[in-house]
Every structure is written in C-alpha cells, then in structure tokens.
Amino acid sequence: MKAITWLASLTVGIAALSAPAGANTPEGWSTNLEKSLAKAKAENKSVLVEFIGSDWCPPCIAMRKNVFSTKSFIHAASKKFILVELDLPKGDNAVREKNQPLADKYKIEAFPTIVLIGTDGKEFTRFVATLFPKTEDFLQHLDEALERKDLD
User: Fold this and answer.
1) 96 with 88: CB under 8 angstroms?
2) Spatial distance between the Cα atoms of 99 and 27, rounded to a whole number of angstroms
3) Which domains, from first to last, does the chain contain?
4) Mind listing the pLDDT tens digit for each residue in 77-114?
5) pTM of this prediction?
6) Angle, CA 67 vertex, CA 19 and CA 41 arms, to 5°
7) Measured torsion, CA atoms of residues 126, 148, 42, 63, in degrees rounded to the nearest 10
8) Distance between CA 43 and CA 29 in Å, rounded?
9) Three-state secondary structure along the chain?
10) CA 137 to chain centre
11) What are the average pLDDT values for consecutive 10-residue runs of the chain, which has 152 residues?
C-alpha cells in the first residue's frame, strides 16, 4: 500500500512539474502585464501583480492554494484590480526568461511579492503576500492600500 501511495504522489509531482507554463495559473488571472495595464486603464482599475515561483517557492504555493485561487478572492479582488501572475519557475526556462526582465524592473527580492500599480502605470505600493495569509485579511489590506493611494 505504501508503494502505491508513493507512486501516486510521484506521478502527481511529475505532472505538476511538466505542466506547460501558465497551465496552473488560477482562473481570473492574466500572465501578460502589458495587456493588463491597458485593460486596467480602460476599466479604471488598478493592477495587482503577483511575482511567484510556482514550482520552487513553498510560501508561493501556499498563497496560491489558500488565497489567490479561491473564488471569493478572485471575485472580490477583480472588482477593483486586474489580476496578473508573473511566474519565475525553475522548471520552465521560457516562462522565467519572459518574466525575469519584469522582476528586474520591479526589483523583486522576495517571493511571493505583490506590486500594486495604478491606472497611470506607476507602482503605488508593494508587500510580501505571506503577511496576509487569509483571504479576508488580504482583501482588507488591498482596500487599505487603495484608500492610502487615493489620499496621496
């Protein structure tokens, strides 16, 4: 029985590592920052960019599972934000190479990092996502960030 359990977990792990880039991006999230910035401007929304290491970063994987992929988060956050996930996986060079210039531009030093960008295309705040590991806390922090931005 242990061999079957081990084999099943190995198979799932290999499937996850070999899945095409973006295949695991939660529904409701974009992987194209440029298009998302244009859409945000047209819809008068801000942009929430999550920099993630989907195949090597345990906190990123936990945040995706517990917050970013939940229907309640996506529904609430997408009312005020265009959601963008920029992955820097170790197992997919093409995706990493596509997103690395953006990680460099925004000087990403920790994962998962959230960068909030206004309709003007300028960053107005950033934070490490794991500071708010529950959907309700994360959404409250987003609301507070928008309020502070509007006061500036």
Assistant:
1) yes
2) 19
3) 26-151 (3.40.30.10)
4) 999 999 999 999 999 999 999 999 999 999 999 999 99
5) 0.84
6) 85
7) 40
8) 16
9) CHHHHHHHHHHHHHHHHHCCCCCCCCCCCECCHHHHHHHHHHHCCEEEEEEECCCCCHHHHHHHHHHHCCHHHHHHHCCCEEEEEEECCCCCHHHHHHHHHHHHHCCCCCCCEEEEECCCCCEEEEEEHHHCCCHHHHHHHHHHHHHHHHHC
10) 16
11) 42 39 78 97 97 97 96 97 98 96 97 96 97 97 94 76
Residue type (1 letter), 21: A
Residue with tokens 């005020």: 80
Lookup result for tokens 């060079």: 93
